[in-house]
Amino acid sequence: MKFLDALLGRVKPAPSKTDALFSISTAQVTLATKLDILPAGKAGICFKIVQSTSFERLKSDLEELLELGKKETSTEFRMVKDAFGYLWIVLSDAEFEDLVTTLHLVSETLIENGFGGLLLSSVFRFERAAGTARAAGEAVVYFIYNYKKGRFYPFVPLKGKGRARDEQYEMKLGSLLERELPVEKEVENWYPMWGVPV
Questions:
Q1: Phi, psi for 10 (deg, rounded to 5)
Q2: Predicted TM-score (pTM) above 0.85
Q3: Based on the number of CB atoms within 10 Å of its own CB, is 192 exposed (0-12), middle (13-18) or buried (19 or more)?
Q4: How do residues 74-83 score in pLDDT, each as one tens digit?
């Protein structure tokens, strides 16, 4: 059948890697109920900047789109250029679903306009509930979605310890959520994102 499809020029569209973003919605329930890790109301998407008029036009269109979306969802946004020359769209919203939907919309807009190759990652910030056993040491947990791989991985920076991370806890989180999230299997690809503006 695949041969016949190829012969007749019929191609099945590949499932969009961006749809995997929605799996974080289920995972956040598990994080809350099993580990007292709650959404912090912040998320962001990071992509490479290119010097072109079409990219500048797209950036302007994205701002318009996000302003319109703000009227519907109350999702606040800001654009930040980081030290590596990447552009971040940082979102704030108490409704986790709105954050997920908005990041999906931004990534799909980039892809539809031919800039999908510029996408680096989406980052969701979580925080441990006050009073939990680990809250004092590592209050922040990030889940990072790598667009090239189409997979998530956890990142847990250690508070007040420079560029140290809790790799053991990251492994625990990855194992806990592997049935709900497409978790990156190669741990060496769990790249730390220091200084994220999320």
A1: -90, 125
A2: yes
A3: middle
A4: 899 999 999 8
